[in-house]
Design a protein that fits this description.
Elements lengths: L5 E6 L2 E6 L10 E10 L4 E10 L8 E8 L18 E8 L8 E3 L11 E3 L5 E3 L26 E3 L20 E8 L10 E9 L11 E8 L6 E6 L5 E3 L9 E3 L30 H11 L8 H7 L3 H57 L1
Parallel strand pairs: 9-10, 15-16
Antiparallel strand pairs: 1-2, 3-4, 4-5, 5-6, 7-8, 8-9, 11-12, 12-13, 13-14, 14-15
Length: 372
């Protein structure tokens, strides 16, 4: 049922009633109490505009207040200094019968629109661009490991274009100076006094000689149990990723520690040593290889232990070199196998010749014996 609207404005004993036009959908009768200031011996109530519906208290009358108040105007007595008492602007609503908070809606598409551009729910959750900001607690979160669903949202920022949340501060030219951060904390604190259990922040990665040309590195942090040790992953200003280290030495990925993977694929541009099997490849003589090993204590084209300790190991290049040595070794084995085969055939021919000679010698001996 659409009702006509009236407003009563009262300043102490003065009241004013105004007749308004036919309201649109969702408009109800109510009142405005203008200039409400209640002063008691121990409590200074807020002052400002008091709004209310004509719904009876038993029907959970909606009451809203816009004005000034002290941060702790109920629990503590004012000092007489607005700055010390943290006097601020107050926007609040509640249902009279139960005293619980009312949601706050700001903005909208128009007079006949029921949406809002910013919502503060009764639980204190904030929605930007949506009237459903989610809840701090719901049945989906009663046990550990519950799956996420839409009702788990605490803060929602929605836009038809690209939503942007900007964190900024006037950072100094000091390297490592933080620009902005998002922390995941334990509200009940930690035994080691570090509430941040994980975080994401941006640091100044610029150069001190160019303080106005600031570069940034993105840091992802988790914290170990019962200690202040931070485990970090850092993306530097060149997009290089460092796990456990800030210095990627110019590589796209640097890891300070052990790695494990089910499969690693290294893509090489060129130089795979199939050329070893071409007819014109000059296979080094084994005597030459033996002399090199005796002099250098490692294979030709393979880095020495000191170089590996100093420069590290290039997996792709090392696989190429190792394959080349395997292919060369295969050629050596093939050559030796051919030599062994030729030697066996030679030995067989010699054995056959020796057997034939033995047979001839035996025949001659028999003739000599018979002639006697």
């Amino acid at each position: 049922m659409i009702k006509r609207t009236f407003f009563s404005m009262g300043i102490t004993l003065l009241s004013l009633t105004a007749y308004c036009q036919e309201p649109g959908p969702g408009v109800f009768s109510g009142y405005i109490n203008l200039g409400w200031l209640e002063v008691q011996s121990t409590v200074n109530r807020p002052q400002g505009l008091l709004f209310g519906t004509t719904t009876p208290t038993t029907g959970n009358q909606g009451t809203a207040f816009i004005g000034l108040h002290r941060k702790s105007y109920i629990s503590t007595t004012g000092t007489g200094n607005d700055l010390n008492d943290q006097v601020g602007i107050w926007i609040k609503g509640y249902y009279q019968n139960i005293g619980s908070a009312m949601p706050i809606f700001i903005g909208g598409e128009g007079f006949n629109s029921e949406d809002s551009k910013l919502t503060v729910s009764r639980n204190g959750n904030i929605g930007i661009g949506t009237i459903n900001p989610g809840t701090e607690f719901n049945t989906n979160q009663t046990t550990y490991g519950s799956s996420y669903n839409a009702s788990d949202k605490v803060l929602t920022i929605r836009s038809a274009n690209q939503p942007v949340l900007e964190l900024s501060r006037p950072a100094s030219s000091t390297i490592g100076n933080r620009i902005g951060a998002i922390y995941f904390t334990n509200a009940s604190n930690q035994s080691d006094a570090h509430r941040q259990v994980a975080g994401i922040w941006v640091e100044n990665a610029g150069r001190t000689d160019y303080p106005t040309l600031m570069g940034g590195r993105l840091v992802f942090m988790t914290k170990g149990y019962a200690g202040g040790v931070q485990n970090k992953i850092t993306m530097d200003s060149f997009g290089n990723l460092g796990i456990g280290t800030l210095d990627t030495k110019g590589y796209k990925l640097a890891v300070a520690g052990n790695m494990i993977a089910e499969q690693v694929k290294v893509k090489l541009q060129s130089g795979w040593p199939d050329y070893v099997f071409t007819d014109d490849y000059a296979l080094p003589p084994l005597a030459e290889v033996a002399a090199y090993i005796k002099a250098n204590k490692h294979l030709p084209e393979i880095p020495a232990a000191e170089e590996i300790a100093r420069e590290g190991l290039d997996v792709g290049q090392m696989n190429k070199r190792l394959l080349k040595k395997v292919e060369e070794l295969t050629l050596y084995i093939i050559a030796q196998q051919q030599e062994i085969k030729a030697q066996r055939e030679s030995n067989k021919a010699q054995m056959e010749m020796l057997l034939k000679l033995q047979q001839e010698v035996a025949a001659l001996k028999a003739q000599v014996q018979n002639g006697k």
